Amino acid sequence: MSTLPVSHSKAAEAFLADKPYVSWHDETLWFVRSKRDKAARSVPEWETLRELASAVKAHTLSRLDEYLVQFESNAKKNGIHVHWANDAAEHNSIITEILRSHNVQKVVKSKSMLTEECGLNPYLAERGISVIDTDLGEYIVQLRNEHPSHIVLPAIHLKKEAVSDTFHEHLHTEKNNNDPVYLTRSARTVLRNHFITADAAITGVNFAVAETGGFVICTNEGNADMGAHASKLHIACMGFEKIIPRAEDLGIFLRLLARSATGQPVTTYSSHFHRPAPGQELHLVLVNNGRARQLGRPEFRNSLKCIRCAACFNTCPVYRRSGGHSYHNAVAGPIGAILAPNLDMKNNADLPFASTLCGSCTNVCPVKINIHEQLWSWRQVLMKEGYGGKAKEAAMKTMAAVLSKPGLFVRTANTARKLMRAVPWLFNNKLNPWYRQREMPSAPAQSFKTWYKKNRNEQQG
Amino acid sequence: MRVGLFIPCYVDQFYPQVAIATMELLEKLGCEVVYPAAQTCCGQPMANSGFESYAAGCNANFIKQFRGFDYVVCPSGSCVLHVKEHLHDADESTASVIRNTVYELTEFLTDILKVEQLNASFPFKVGLHVSCHGQRMLHLASMSERMLPPFSKALSLLHKVAGIELIDPVRADECCGFGGTFCVTEEAVSVAMGQSRVEEHAANDVEYITGGDMSCLMHLEGILKRQRSNIKVIHLAQILNAQ
């Protein structure tokens, strides 16, 4: 039997043990959020763009089957080999087969959260194929045998000192040289060598255009291009939801993506791939892995609009203070918390509760996903399915019973308040999570109800 | 104008002075205010915990208490939001009337009573804590994430109070971390979020933190008291009603 992952709240508590570190983490991500605000403000039609993006995605999702088939047909015409994977296992085995048929020993990979979702790296490693993640942040976490903590900034949880130590251990850089330029150059030298010597390149896909059969990859480091152009074999992997109908729709999404993600007007490299270069083979793996199921859930369908900008991570006050790993899912943050239960309700039942439902995520989302409403809806689904546990169900039933009977409510509340006044230690103790770091509110001698009865009784109907 | 006064259950129990201030303020502004005494709770604690299905009894009682008023007014954005979004009943026509006539206090003062002047004075340094549900879902104020013209119903009312000095925190609308049951189920994050809010207001040297939701303020108060801070929390209604 599999064991449940450490819950978000427990992991967050551990993360929060180092207060200066958490302040740094919070400030760093808030800085990215602020850059996003500035970039968004520079576009007068920002809110219109969001509307358009949301509408294009809604339309696409409403006929996803048609667009996927159209895309496949056009991609094939362009000379791309198209594969369909129904789940993570199929995705991994399809890629392994392609790699084996080309006798590939070493693959360079540019960032793809889908391959994280599918667990491709360990799968290939077990089969003797080495994978080098070439996005700098992802390379750092790979060296440390960690997962990305953020879908755009994979190593955002690490300070430069930690990166220096990691590079010293694995790349033999100077000890305690924390200069970011030095560290980046060191990684670059190693990565350049990998690009030249790799047998294949795996990339993700940001947008796949149905009418052209081509796709677009956005990176800031150009690592997708380095990999794809230097190898004879390029395999691109994409979830179903990456489809957009027309090339001209890119004008909406590319303007929103980088501004929302990092506050840049556009990603440094927005690379368009349509067909294999002469002498090259180009494969594309279209992955379902639960997306069709999510499409079939009306209240959660909109989550498939996501373009993976991570603006909801950066703005989320919970994410900033709990770190990406506390979400125990390839995609963390608010969007991860509504995607993960679709993949595995039992293991991810805690995630929709890792939110105050403040709604900031919904407001920054460039494709207007109603994230906080979906968090709320997932809570209802998960509790109906019994993932809350018997104790919680019983407590909630009792609470509901008390609150639906005015007389019982008054007696219960008055008794509790009297107890708080007479026996404060009953409440002010370690068993009460409120009291651990907060004082209890002081209990007044009389409730408003009592005051009203005494002072305004004449008005009562 | 007959107004049903909807007082959140925890305000009834822990902050009667907030309910009194709300009532007095509405009366001063010419409303006939009635407090249906058998009201309990809007049902949000169950619903936000994933048990909306258990809230039927609560809803039925709410409707019984609040039928027949011109308006239902409440000094909490969060509770009003819950009623607006989730109040349903076998008697759906009454539920619908209530959903459409329930108002958060500052919204009611601004949009229905169209208050232009307030005979209030509060000569203190005050920081406003913007509560998320009121702001982002009831649209009581513009939001830092959206690229839309700025406004704030709470601030426009506070600016009518004599002597008040308002100082904005840097992150003007970051959540305090209360979040209902979140405040205990995610205790560590909840407190860390609250501490960040308190820190910013403390850096501004305010004497009071105010807001439209006592739940946020109760959470911040708990943190302030543990820190033995001199900063006090006070509900907006108390400031608007202060002489």
TrEMBL record, chain A:
Record Pfam families: Fer4_8, LUD_dom, LutB_C
Example GO BP: lactate metabolic process
This protein's UniProt keywords: 4Fe-4S, Electron transport, Iron, Iron-sulfur, Metal-binding, Repeat, Transport
Domain 4Fe-4S ferredoxin-type: 296-326
One of the record's GO molecular function terms: metal ion binding
UniProt protein name: L-lactate dehydrogenase complex protein LldF
Species whose genome carries this gene: Sediminibacterium ginsengisoli
Source species taxonomy: Bacteria, Pseudomonadati, Bacteroidota, Chitinophagia, Chitinophagales
From TrEMBL, chain B:
Organism annotation: Sediminibacterium ginsengisoli
Domain Cysteine-rich: 3-83, 126-220
GO cellular component: cytosol
Entry protein name: L-lactate dehydrogenase complex protein LldE
Top-level taxon: Bacteria
A matching Pfam family: CCG
GO MF: oxidoreductase activity
